[in-house]
Amino acid sequence: MLSLLFDGASLLSVAAQNLAVKTNALWWMTGTPNIGIEIPVIENQTFQLFYGINPWKSDVKSTTHWCLQPEFRYWLRQRWKGWFVGIHAMGGEFNVENKRLPLGIWKGLRDNRYSGWYVGGGISAGYQWKLSRHWNLEAAIGFGYNYVEYDQYKCLKCGELERSSSLNYVGPTKLALNIQYLF
Predict the structure, then answer these.
(1) Euclidean distance between CA atoms 65 and 107, whole angstroms
(2) What are the residues whose beta carbons fall under 8 Å from the beta carbon of 123, sequence distance 6 or more?
(3) pTM for this one?
(4) Closest alpha carbon to 142 in 114, 120, 166, 159
(5) What mean pLDDT comes out for the span 72-86?
(6) Taking the C-alpha atoms of 75, 80, 81 and 87 in order, what is their torsion angle to the nearest 10 degrees?
(7) Which of 16-26 are b and which e, b meaning 16 or more Cβ less than 10 Å from the residue's Cβ?
(8) Which of 13, 95, 122, 169 has the fewest Cβ atoms within 10 angstroms?
(9) Which residues contact 12 (CB under 8 A, 6 or more apart)?
(10) DSSP letters of 103-142?
């Protein structure tokens, strides 16, 4: 019985050393605080869960949203070092107005407010560099699909509902430059 307790305790300590906490610097650049955790599944596979929220509003511009993004990863060499490929899901809600998005996405954002939700998923790939015993840097990109339902309001703050609609988005679904701490 005592042996079983010590074996269980050593398994917990090994698992605790294989936990990563991370944050996406690119999300912070958009004013979106975020945090992610990544845990091992088996030898070269990990599971990551990321959450970001942007609750900030102003009188001129607003981009409030939250996003949850789970991801399963397969590491080509070893966990938390080198190349990985993954499959991710995502979902969240948004309320956006008076913005210009890159690549001409949602051109009406300058004159309208959009409020809604989305769900989707995709594939991803990335690379992780070991900086020190506990610190890593990671770059990742993803491509996939999102189903989006939204309400469009004509005026920014005060407008009446102009229409409700949905769209199918295919394109980039993930861009990350993560700073990671390994326990």
Answers:
(1) 19
(2) 85, 86, 87, 88, 142, 143, 144
(3) 0.81
(4) 120
(5) 96
(6) 30
(7) eeeebebbbee
(8) 13
(9) none
(10) GGTTGGGGT-EEEEEEEEEEEEEEEEEE-SSSEEEEEEEE
DSSP collapsed to 3 states, 29-94? HCCCCEEEEEEEEECCEEEEEEEEEECCECCCCEEEEEEEEEEEEEECCECCEEEEEEEEEEEEEE
**Encoded tokens for 133:** 């015993």
Structure tokens at 74: 């397969």
Among all chains, which residue has been given the structure tokens 């339902």? 149
The amino acid present at 113, given as its one-letter code, is: R
- The two three-digit tokens of residue 131, written as one number: 């900086």
Distance CA 125, CA 84 (A): 6
Which token pair is 122? 């995709």
Confidence of residue 108 (pLDDT cuts 50, 70, 90): confident
Distance CA 164, CA 109 (A): 15
Of 89, 86, 90, 48, the residue nearest 65 (C-alpha): 90
